[in-house]
Specification:
- The longest helix has 35 residues, at 117-151.
- The protein is mainly alpha-helical and 299 residues long.
- The chain is globular.
- It has helices at 2-7, 11-27, 29-50, 64-94, 97-104, 106-111, 117-151, 158-180, 185-211, 215-227, 230-241, 244-253, 258-261, 273-296.
Length: 299
């Protein structure tokens, strides 16, 4: 049934659903609230960073290098908060997408036309993915430009930062869309957020296990990062923000820095290429399951 649905894909129908999804989502007050929150976060962050040069008395003020180092760590914490806000937004936008259309009767009206259920799923997924990608890129660019103007600091790899944040958000969005084919928006949102939290905690546990050579805990963390790649992608974002000097200092400390390795706001190495390929394969499989589940759902 999944194969037949994919064979009947109509690019024009997918594009129509994508446009409708973007338009309807943009009308919701959630996006307005998210935009206001983003502007507040950026303003507060930039104000706090601008005050770093005033810390300490005469002869004790931070040097330009110290300001850049502190700025890098503040930026990591801010991006973590952003990733959590993105997770909330993605879940509560995606979770009612299909279940809400079924409950309201919109799905029945749409599917009486020459539009397949696979078209609907892919159109909604593309629309939501485009929205979150545009938001992430815009917010990160504005934040980084402001920091550059204030401190002349730029993270090592801003492009990969945006790629990892987009990937993390789209992964959770895709999971919420799958759950939406079977459960109501509220229930699906809670389940998806719970999975996000478990993945994050599992990632911390894995870091602790690796730092203290505990194979069992390390395997638990690795398993959670494979089942839901959000935490692994977040750690890629952290690595793209971490200055080379901080990583070099950590490696110079060696085993004495085990506690640092367990810090969820520090990552000494980025995810390998195979993990990125796994995340892409995960997305493809979950999208396929979403189409299959929706095809099997009675309307």
């Amino acid at each position: 049934m999944l194969r037949q649905g994919l064979l009947r894909l109509q690019p024009r129908a997918i594009w129509v659903i994508t446009r409708l999804t973007v338009r309807e989502t943009a009308r919701r007050k959630l996006l307005l609230a998210l935009l206001v929150l983003t502007l507040v976060i950026i303003a507060v962050t930039l104000y706090g960073i601008s005050r770093l040069s005033t810390i300490g008395g005469e002869g004790q003020k931070l040097t330009p290098l110290e300001i850049k180092t502190v700025t890098s760590q503040i930026l990591i914490v801010v991006m973590f908060m952003w990733s959590f806000v993105l997770a909330l937004s993605a879940v509560f936008v995606a979770a009612p997408q299909i279940s809400g259309d079924i409950e309201s009767g919109i799905a029945l009206a749409i599917l009486t036309r020459p539009i397949s259920r696979a078209d609907v799923v892919l159109g909604k997924w593309l629309g939501l993915s485009a929205l979150v990608s545009a938001y992430i890129v815009g917010a990160v660019v504005v934040e980084l430009i402001g920091i550059k103007l204030l401190t002349d600091y730029q993270p090592p790899d801003p492009l990969m930062l945006m790629v990892y944040l987009v990937g993390e958000t789209v992964v959770l969005l895709t999971l919420a869309l799958l759950i939406s084919t079977r459960l109501s928006g509220m229930t699906g949102g809670v389940i998806a957020l719970g999975a996000f939290g478990i993945s994050w905690i599992g990632g911390i546990a894995g870091s602790i296990g690796a730092a203290f050579d505990n194979a069992t805990i390390t395997h638990i963390g690795t398993t959670t990062q494979l089942l839901l790649p959000t935490d692994g992608l977040w750690r890629g974002a952290v690595y793209s923000l971490e200055p080379a000097a901080v990583i070099t200092a950590y490696r110079a400390v060696g085993r004495a820095g085990r506690a640092v390795a367990a810090n969820p706001f520090f990552e000494p190495s980025g995810p390998p290429l195979i993990y990125g390929l796994w995340a892409l394969a995960w997305l493809a499989v979950i999208l396929g399951l979403t189409i299959y589940s929706f095809n099997r759902r009675e309307i």
